[in-house]
Specification:
With about 240 residues, this protein is an alpha/beta fold. It is about 35% helix and about 25% strand. The strands form 2 sheets. A 6-stranded mixed beta sheet has the order 6-7-8-3-9-10, with helices on both faces. A 4-stranded antiparallel beta sheet has the order 2-1-4-5, with helices on one face.
């Protein structure tokens, strides 16, 4: 199995405050890898360093074997990585469908064949999230929090990424909406979408993951398959409610 995303010794932070202290991890093609850890451990900073929203100060980030740590965020998107950030960040005045189409700018041709390819991409998202199809002409700012999260994930998927970063997709959602979003992530996993997931609910993260990294104070303190992580007493006590 080929490696879709790899980090070696990545350091990053804000100003003089270093948050990541040499993080190394990998995501193989078709895997769903999850990061768990306490708030402030560096998980979101790590996602930002991967997607180009934050420039690493040291280390290497590779997408399909290509170094990308010096690429711009738009350049990284063009190379096949999509980042669904914490907080959703939809374009509130625009319709649901226009939000989705904006996510496809890397993939869709500007003129010839645009409508046909756009229709295929949209139908994939509407199949995954039927509620978005029902609300496709509605402005994004009038959607519920759960619907906005569906839209944010759908917008990221419209570029047909080789790797999808999902940062706290269940944050602030009602339990019924958490279930909808998690079911969609399971479906994407079954479809072979390569994903790196940060999720506040550790039990949920373990239930969908192929592999797990535990992040503590900007470093990887533990890694393994979900069943192995569940047997670690320190992890159970800290994150799994025991």
């Amino acid at each position: 199995m080929s490696i879709a995303l790899q980090l070696d010794g990545v350091k990053a932070g804000y100003g003089r405050a270093e948050v990541l202290h040499g993080v190394s991890l990998k995501v193989e093609q078709g895997q769903l890898v999850t990061l768990i850890g306490a708030n402030g451990a560096g998980k979101t900073t790590l996602m930002r360093a991967i997607s180009g929203m934050l420039r690493p100060t040291d280390g290497v980030v590779k997408l399909a074997g290509r170094d990308i740590q010096t690429e711009s965020a738009p350049g990284i998107v063009r190379l096949g990585l999509a980042h669904c950030p914490e907080g959703r960040r939809v374009f509130a005045p625009l319709s649901v469908e226009d939000n989705l189409l904006l996510g496809a700018y890397r993939k869709l041709p500007p003129l010839l064949g645009y409508r046909k390819k756009a229709a295929v991409a949209l139908e994939r998202i509407y199949t995954l999230f039927p509620r978005l199809k029902e609300r496709r002409t509605q402005t994004a700012g009038t959607l519920s929090g759960g619907e906005q999260q569906m839209l944010a994930i759908g917008r990221a998927l419209m570029s047909d990424p080789s790797v999808l970063l999902l940062d706290e997709p269940s944050m602030g959602l009602a339990p019924v909406m958490v279930d909808v979003v998690v079911d969609a992530i399971r479906t994407l996993r079954q479809q072979g979408v390569t994903m790196l997931l940060v999720e506040q609910f550790a039990q949920t993260a373990l239930s969908v993951a192929d592999y797990v990294y535990v992040v503590e104070r900007g470093t990887i303190s533990l890694e393994g398959k979900p069943e192995d992580i569940r047997q670690n007493e320190a992890v159970v006590a800290a994150y799994l409610g025991a």
